[in-house]
Amino acid sequence: MERVTNLILIDSDTRRRATISHMLSADAIHVEPFENISELASAWPRSGVILIHHEAGAVNDLVEAMARYGEWFPIVAFREDPCTHNIVQAILDGAIDYLPWPISSGQLAETVRCSIERAAEVGNAKLREVMARTRIERLTRREREVLGGVASGLSNRLIGEKLSISPRTVEIHRANMLHKLGANHTSDAIRIAIEAALVH
Predict the structure, then answer these.
(1) Gene3D superfamilies per the record (predicted)?
(2) How far, CA to CA in Å, does 85 sit from each of 54, 81, 89, 90, 94?
(3) What pLDDT, in 10s, does the model give residues 69-122?
(4) Which top CATH class is 5-135?
């Protein structure tokens, strides 16, 4: 017997939530409908793929909520007549797929299944990236510049020359940067910078 797949649906439109739930019931896909991210946060799921109706900032808000919970679920965004900008923004914010609405039940079910397979590959890496970016957002511009220099293998003296500040000032920024990142060693800070895609 085919394993039941869990779909977490976030959509403020009651009628559309009912339509999607009905469409997927025949495909062994269990739908958990939520009106918004706050409602989801009050009953955080154990597993599944999130299908979210895409409005400005929705995917980004959802990714931030997942970072707070330390759980990553693959996100598929959808909306009526999406333009290229909508799709690109959602993918940059963390969605792994994007669908136009309306969509056939077969296409929707297939997308959900593909997303589960892809999630196994990208899930943990994506969560680490989101969490690392959240930490780096705590840094001042100068601390980020020092972190960039450290991650590039530069000494305090060379970082100071590059930023036109003294090695002692670099040391102070470096200590503050490590503290804010929650890093015990420089190697931890470099790992966080790499995970946040600050350096390649």
Answers:
(1) 3.40.50.2300
(2) 12, 11, 6, 9, 14
(3) 777 788 999 999 888 998 988 888 888 889 999 988 888 888 877 877 776 666
(4) alpha beta
